[in-house]
Amino acid sequence: MNEYNFQLVLSFFSKLQNKICDTLIQVDNHSVFKKDIWSKKNCQGDTRILKNGKIFEKASVSTSDISGNSLPNTSTNKNKNFLNCLYRATGISVIVHPKNPYIPTSHLNLRFFLVYDSQNLLKWWFGGGGFDLTPYYGFTEDVVHWHQTAEQICRPFGVDLYKKYKKWCDDYFFIKHRNEPRGIGGLFFDDVNKPNFHHVFSFTKSVGDGYIKAYLPIVNLRKSYTWSKRERDFQLYRRSRYVEFNLLLDRGTIFGIQSQGRIESILSSMPPIVKWKYNWKPRPKSQENTGNLELIAKYSPKDVTTNPSLICKEARACAEARV
């Protein structure tokens, strides 16, 4: 249980940050990331922001290393006996808000915790981790590709792992006060430290490396789609749901505030422009209705792997579309 390598995790998060930033810069082919190295009492980090790009309106790729005397209560669901203990945590957070409404917003988060419990025994776990996708206009083949990639990531680590972490993601990214999912899910895991550090770290690395494999084909397929003010208005409206979740429900955001982290970095996940509309409803049979909300209802929280014939058909269409 106590065998771990904090520096190894730090190094992986830093390399992953570079890899993701380099990939997004190449795809955008217009803007670059501005690096902001920051530090304050008991914490430091590297926040990188790309804005006003050709493809990405805003992207935030951040790493942090923080410590404190009292572990915030949002850091864990399982290990509540560790609350108010000495801790150290590191993580990487990625949020991409595209300009084109036909490209989904994507999110990746990975964290590693060290804690000294009340008996002064060191404990560790990986938590608050995974990735999810938030489409504005849904395409079945994008959903299938996203979840097939997630399933392929999980497969070497357990036959039931994808189903477990898929459901966990659906449950976590559910906007309770709206009674609707934030998007079409992905993977979410928390409080994981078994069977050993090497195994869990290997899985965490697979999730981090798999994020680009899951997201990039969707971006490349949809980036040439033309759009108008109507699609833009709908995108901004749906972004408001993203903001509501992050500010009211997201444990990562609340943890950052409770740990007295750097607020500019904590809120770097926010989209640059958002609209709220009072009691707005999409027109029946409109693209805003059938293209997004019905797709979300169909695939979340249902497990897409329960219909192999559909997946095979849509996977072939997805592959053909990307040739």
Describe the structure.
- The protein is α+β, with helices and mostly antiparallel strands.
- The chain has one domain: oxygen-dependent coproporphyrinogen oxidase (3-Layer(aba) Sandwich).
- It has nine helices and nine strands.
- The strands form two sheets. A seven-stranded antiparallel sheet has the order 1-2-3-4-5-6-9.
- Helix 2 (140-154) crosses helix 9.
- The N and C termini lie far apart (46 Å).
Strand content: 15-25%
**How much is the radius of gyration in Å?**
19 Å
Q: Please work out how many helical segments DSSP would assign.
A: 9
Distance between the termini: 46 Å
With strands numbered from the N-terminus, the spatial order across the biggest sheet is 1-2-3-4-5-6-9
Overall mean pLDDT: 87
- Characterize the biggest β-sheet: 7 strands, antiparallel
**CATH hierarchy: architecture:** 3-Layer(aba) Sandwich
The CATH topology comes to oxygen-dependent coproporphyrinogen oxidase
Count of distinct strands: 9
Shape: globular
Enzyme class: oxidoreductase
InterPro entries: Coprogen_oxidase_aer, Coprogen_oxidase_aer_sf, Coprogen_oxidase_CS, Transaldolase_AS
Subunit structure: Homodimer.
Family: Belongs to the aerobic coproporphyrinogen-III oxidase family.
Give the tags.
disordered C terminus; 7-stranded antiparallel sheet; oxygen-dependent coproporphyrinogen oxidase; 9 strands; 323 residues; 9 helices; globular; alpha+beta; two-stranded antiparallel ribbon
In short:
The protein has nine helices and nine strands.
Topology:
Elements: H1 6-28, E1 34-40, E2 43-51, E3 56-68, E4 86-98, E5 105-116, E6 122-134, H2 140-154, H3 161-172, E7 174-175, E8 180-181, E9 185-189, H4 197-222, H5 229-248, H6 251-258, H7 263-266, H8 287-299, H9 308-322
Antiparallel strand pairs: 1-2, 2-3, 3-4, 4-5, 5-6, 6-9, 7-8
